Write a sequence for this structure.
């Protein structure tokens, strides 16, 4: 079993399982609409625009676990992302990323170390996990890592299938 075998739903309903992205690099990011880091949506969309045709999928995963910063309904989250940041990358249903109700996706992701060696619970909104085309976690980046940073884009370049 790989991360591509984990089931989850799309923000608007229906399946959003990672199996549809098998063979691609996937940047999984827990997102929130009312966070100081929310402007990272623009950088995430730029990654999707710049690398999507080369095999990258940015996957936004809304979570309300950090100071209630993603309180909206699925429709409100979708409208916010589209209107304010022109988001076209897929968004999943709102899930738990920490604690006893942690979604299986994050149960698989949290053991990956970031560049400082940190593993474990998600620290805040916009923590980033780069999943390689084979389903392994290739890299983890902290919430404050800018999506356009040299370290993140270099990791994406290494993980791209083409």
């Amino acid at each position: 079993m790989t991360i591509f075998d984990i089931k989850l739903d799309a923000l608007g309903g229906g399946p959003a399982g990672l199996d549809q992205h098998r063979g691609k690099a996937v940047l999984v990011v827990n997102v929130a609409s009312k966070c100081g880091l929310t402007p990272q949506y623009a950088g995430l969309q730029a990654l999707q625009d710049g690398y999507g045709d080369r095999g990258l999928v940015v996957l936004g995963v809304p979570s309300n676990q950090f100071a209630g910063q993603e309180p909206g309904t699925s429709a409100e989250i979708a409208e916010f992302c589209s209107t304010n940041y022109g988001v076209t990358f897929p968004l999943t249903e709102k899930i738990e990323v920490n604690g006893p109700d942690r979604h299986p996706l994050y149960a698989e992701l949290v053991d990956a170390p970031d560049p400082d060696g940190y593993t474990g619970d998600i620290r805040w909104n916009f923590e980033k996990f780069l999943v390689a085309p084979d389903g392994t976690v290739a890299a983890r980046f902290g919430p404050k890592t800018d999506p356009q940073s040299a370290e993140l884009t270099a990791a994406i370049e290494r993980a791209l299938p083409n």
Observations:
- The helical segments are 40-51, 74-85, 104-109, 150-159.
- The first strand starts at residue 25 and ends at 31.
- The chain has one domain: 13-159.
